[in-house]
Amino acid sequence: MTMDIKVVKFGGSSLADAAQFKKVAAIIKDDPARRYVVPSAPGKRFAGDDKVTDLLYRCYDHASKGEDIDAEFAHIVERYNSIITDLEMDFSLEKEFAQIKNAFLCHAGRDYAASRGEYLNGKILAEYLGFPFLDAANAIFFNEDGTFNAKLTNTILSAKLRSLDCAVIPGFYGAMPNDTIRTFSRGGSDITGSIVARAVDADLYENWTDVSGFLMADPRIVQNPQTIRVITYHELRELSYMGATVLHEDAIFPVRYAGIPINIRNTNDPSVPGTMIVPDAKHPSYETKEIVTGIAGKKGFCTVTLEKDRMNDEVGFGRRVLQVLENHNICFEHLPSGIDTMCIILNTHDVDGIRDMIINEICQTVEPDSIAIDDDLALIAVVGRGMVKAKGTASRIFKSVSDADVNIRMIDQGSSEQNIIIGVSESCFETAMCAIYDEFAKDNKIR
Ligand code: ASP
After folding, report:
1. Helix 70-86 crosses helix 52-64 at what angle (to 10 degrees)?
2. pLDDT per residue over 258-278, tens digit each?
3. Predicted TM-score of the model (pTM)
């Protein structure tokens, strides 16, 4: 029987100081399947502290303006040295620090600067665990245009890792074709973890952070929301799109492609099972009774409403309207339509400063009887694979919202029947979110 392979990624708060390193090492040693480890840079140790990545960006910006960086650089060095000292390690990064400082002064690039946060933390963690260190610059690759090169990375990374029983691979960066360093967007160590999981065909990708999983609703809006036990990639994508965050959005794609589940876990509370993110929830151990998996939403939308008599007979009407948006490089969010009306929900931010121009162009193109933009729209997505089978979900949503004295301005149900989206005035957003949460949270037993 072959041993399970788990790829474990630890976020910045999990590796912020020596005490956190000890917890991480204990978690890794607790399960021999935890063989490939992806660390972030040291994060905040307490509220108001700095993340090392932010310190590196700031320090590099000063270096690139020709300013003195001695004190700032020494502060970064101190963050790492205090970890090494407090772990009582016989290990030094002085050579690396000198090289990096020199590269800062030679303007080696902002991405290079930021990537050193993960690089140095990876070096310490590898030494502390007794694992080989694999530099992401030699195994994760970008294309000339800066996009991630999945094919080349997968070939080289999987060959390198298959020859290693275990390894530490720093997150967040890789190499461009000309060997310079490039990073993913902020929070990108999640993506590295997912790429590594795919490369070794892992049984599980564990993403260790400082929360015990993915919450059913935003805790800044709903008090003490329940943790989601099992969520599908599809549901997670819907919720992340509407503003829910735990994992970098792009981290889903490499493992989703390979059908590898992700387990969100808490480094500070490792006995909690966390949230499983799975390709589909048909497996018996993933079965749940929940109808709604999660609720997420965002403010800042507007509705463009067009009316025209006999719109339904006019072939190409919709295409011509959308062409105007495309010409301005604007994505639409939703398109709920009637016989003689068409509504387009847009991100208010996308039309800032150009709304008159867009209205004029739409008027010239399709000559509507009337056209209006209404601001102040918040969207709430109620997401759940359980909704496909359950009758009455929409009516429960509408009743809970109307009982909370909130008017629903827009409704859109995705054809997958896994989400219902409603639009409410921004001032009613929080009230509506809480009302929907309270209605469905009572279905779920697990807290
Ligand atoms: N250290 C990087 C950041 O702060 C990447 C990460 O932590 O995932 O964004």
Report:
1. 150
2. 999 999 999 999 999 999 999
3. 0.87
Residue 412 CB neighbour total at 10 angstroms: 17
Residue ranges in 293-385 assigned as alpha helix (H): 317-327, 348-351, 355-366
In a domain, 251, yes or no: no
Across 109-120, average pLDDT? 98
How close is the Cα of 43 to the center of ligand 1, in Å? Answer: 8
Going across the sheet that includes 410-413, the strands are: 341-347, 294-307, 370-383, 419-425, 410-413
Q: What pLDDT score does 2 carry?
A: 59
* Distance, CA of 213 to chain centre: 13
Token pair in block for residue 149: 């090169």
- Same-domain pairing of 203 and 298: no
Ligand 1 atom nearest residue 41's Cα? 1
Q: How many domains does the chain have?
A: 2
Domain of 103 in residue numbering reads as 6-210
Pocket probe for ligand 1: among 44, 51, 121, 208, the residue whose CB has the most ligand atoms within 8 Å is 51
pLDDT digits (tens, 9 = 90+) for 140-188: 999 999 999 999 999 999 999 999 999 999 999 999 999 999 999 999 9
Nearest to 327 by CA among 366, 358, 360, 372: 358
In angstroms, the Cα distances linking 266 to 14, 23, 34, 110, 393 are 9, 11, 15, 31, 32
Residue 258: name the closest of 199, 189, 207, 208 by CA: 199
Q: 13 in ligand 1 pocket by Cβ < 6 Å?
A: no
Looking up residue 428, the CATH number of its domain turns out to be 3.30.2130.10
Amino acid occupying residue 22:
K
176/135 Cα distance (integer angstroms): 14
Among 210, 229, 247, the domain-final residue is 210
Q: Which two tokens stand for residue 8?
A: 């474990």
> 188, 210, 232 — which closes off a domain?
210
Distance 12 CA to ligand 1 centre (A): 7
What pLDDT is stored for residue 312 in this prediction? 86
